[in-house]
Specification:
Elements lengths: L8 H21 L6 H10 L12 H10 L6 H7 L1 E5 L4 E5 L3 E4 L4 E4 L8 E5 L8 H4 L5 E5 L10 E2 L4 E5 L7 H16 L7 E5 L3 H6 L1 H7 L7 H4 L2 E4 L2 E3 L20 H12 L13 E5 L10 H10 L3 E5 L1 H5 L1 H9 L3 E5 L15 E6 L4 H14 L3 E6 L7 H5 L4 H4 L1 H5 L3 H10 L7 H15 L7
Parallel strand pairs: 4-6, 7-10, 8-9, 8-11, 12-13, 12-14, 14-15, 15-16
Antiparallel strand pairs: 1-2, 2-11, 3-4, 3-10, 5-6
Helix pairs in contact: 1-2, 8-10, 11-19
The chain binds 2-acetamido-2-deoxy-beta-D-glucopyranose (6 copies).
One 2-acetamido-2-deoxy-beta-D-glucopyranose binds next to strand 5.
Length: 458
């Protein structure tokens, strides 16, 4: 949360009025059981949103819910009021009839689903169901369907549907946060035009803070943290789980009239108030260098920066503390022409580059596959130019750890075949780089040409 600067009269008075206002609203709407500071925080999180829930047209709501099944089990949804779409990565369950959610137990009662035998269905609402490590951090949600005689009484009645998902999984890693949360959230909930409530299990305050701009553009209402709430909320409909397509990807062809990656990027520009859509809207070549301090570190970063400046780039060195403030860093990246970094989560920020900008990935030994599949291919789908700089053994610190003739250097595939743990320990954690400046220069000259921003006089 931002601090209120001392000495500013307006900023000191406004919160008091707001607190009073939100207190009154809460006593009417939600009871006064929550601490004022929590209410204040929620209000801040939801500043742009309205307080009174404003439902969408029921017919449109049913159409949207049905579309979430992506062509599967739609007749089941029509007939019974409840159906799921399940694939390798994720499971999305939809109730188009009223549900009651007991926030204390995360049981979703779908009492009006009919013609279904009573059943308890357990859903882990995080888009990585194929990954056991991630799913260990995801609490299950139980959906009780069929003819339930005594569902619990509603403490709060909502007019908009609930979208239930977990912010557990691979927390605190921006690749996973975009891959498994932000893009899936967009795919699942953008159609509702902000008329929905998010119920975030395994709630992490830092997550809600960091992505507030996105969450508040997808929903006009404050996020519900079930663990802090603990009561029964009733919704006209609900979605449990999020859609997932591919690594940092939106598969345009999946849903007719669906969204594309370019739509997601447009949505991000609106959420973060980013001004630049096309690189041609900028003039000077700005290079953003992702500086990793511990692993896959550029050991001769200073020399790299000198060379970059000599080519005519203005260089921004992005260190972790700069990148931690996503709202600000999104703007920095949005004014960039070229993003340079070693394979790693920081490259996810390519998502904020203008169309026509260049992504340069430094690909360490044995990291070809994840480099292409996590950042290279997706970058191209984002409308970026993508260049790779493949490390020679002489540029990798692994050579001094293992020696030139060790299979780690001469036959990375044989080492990689031992499994992800080995790849992680050797190639992701122990590998640093001393970049061959004259060779890397060629890649950056190409990048500069692609930007169209090279100064013909230099
Ligand atoms: C449709 O629903 C059935 C029963 O719940 C489920 O087993 C099946 O996986 C669903 N189909 C798809 C494609 O998700
Ligand atoms: C589902 O769970 C509830 C309690 O959580 C239990 O009363 C009920 O018998 C269960 N139903 C089935 C079909 O397992
Ligand atoms: C639902 O259950 C009640 C009592 O348990 C029963 O009277 C009613 O017929 C059932 N309805 C349906 C549609 O199965
Ligand atoms: C999205 O497209 C990729 C690449 O074509 C494919 O591998 C993946 O299965 C698709 N995802 C879904 C959910 O259709
Ligand atoms: C890689 O470089 C960083 C930063 O200099 C250092 O902390 C780390 O220990 C190095 N890793 C190895 C395996 O030498
Ligand atoms: C740098 O790369 C060039 C090839 O582009 C090579 O001729 C040169 O020997 C390399 N320098 C070092 C120090 O490895």
């Amino acid at each position: 949360m931002e601090k209120v600067p001392a000495g500013s009269l307006v900023l000191r008075v406004t919160p008091l009025i707001c607190l009073l206002l939100v207190f009154l609203l809460y006593t009417v709407d939600f009871g006064s059981h929550e601490a004022l500071s929590d209410q204040w925080k929620k209000l801040r999180l939801n500043w742009a949103g309205s307080r009174t829930e404003d439902p969408i047209d029921p017919e449109q709501l049913h159409f949207l819910l049905k579309r979430l099944l992506e062509g599967k089990n739609q007749t089941q949804l029509e007939a019974t009021g409840f159906a799921c779409h399940s694939d390798f990565h994720t499971e999305v369950c939809v109730s188009n009839r009223p549900v009651r959610i007991d926030m204390a137990t995360m049981k979703v009662y779908a009492p009006f689903s009919q013609g279904l035998p009573p059943a308890n269905r357990t859903i882990s609402p995080y888009a990585r169901k194929d990954d056991k490590v991630a799913m260990d951090f995801v609490s299950p949600v139980q959906v009780l369907q069929g003819n339930i005689t005594f569902p619990p009484a509603c403490r709060y009645n909502h007019k908009v549907p609930a979208v239930v998902f977990s912010s557990g999984g691979f927390a605190e890693n921006i690749f996973h946060e975009f891959n498994e949360l932000m893009i899936p959230l967009f795919l699942t909930s953008r159609g509702f035009q902000a008329h929905l409530r998010f119920v975030v299990t395994d709630y992490r305050p830092s997550f809600v803070d960091k992505f507030n701009k996105i969450l508040s553009h997808l929903s006009s209402y404050e996020v519900i943290n079930p663990a802090a709430d603990g009561t029964v909320h009733c919704f006209p409909a609900a979605v449990v789980g999020l859609h997932y397509h591919d690594n940092l990807a939106v598969n345009t062809t999946d849903i007719p009239e669906g969204y594309s990656m370019l739509d997601f990027r447009q949505f991000l520009r609106e959420s973060f108030n980013l001004k630049i859509q096309y690189l041609s809207q900028t003039e000077k070549p700005v290079l953003i260098l992702i500086s990793r301090p511990k692993t896959r570190t550029f050991l001769n970063e200073d020399q790299m920066v000198t060379m970059m400046k000599e080519l005519g780039f203005r260089v921004v060195i992005a260190k972790p503390d700069m990148m931690a403030n996503l709202d600000k860093f999104a703007e920095v990246v949005n004014s960039g022409s070229v993003l340079v970094g070693a394979h790693g989560a920081g490259l996810t920020n390519e998502i904020f580059l203008p169309e026509g900008a260049v992504m340069v990935q430094v690909v360490g030994l044995a990291l070809e596959w994840p480099s292409t599949n996590y950042y290279g291919g997706p970058g191209t789908e984002m409308g970026l130019h993508y260049l790779e700089y493949k490390i020679e053994p002489e540029e990798s610190s692994l050579i001094s750890l293992y020696g030139r003739d060790h299979p780690v250097i001469t036959d990375p595939a044989s080492i990689a075949s031992q499994g992800y743990r080995v790849v992680r320990d050797v190639y992701l954690i122990k590998q640093n780089f001393t970049i061959n400046i004259s060779r890397f220069r060629n890649t950056l000259v190409k990048a500069l040409e692609l930007t169209g921003q090279s100064d013909p006089l230099v």
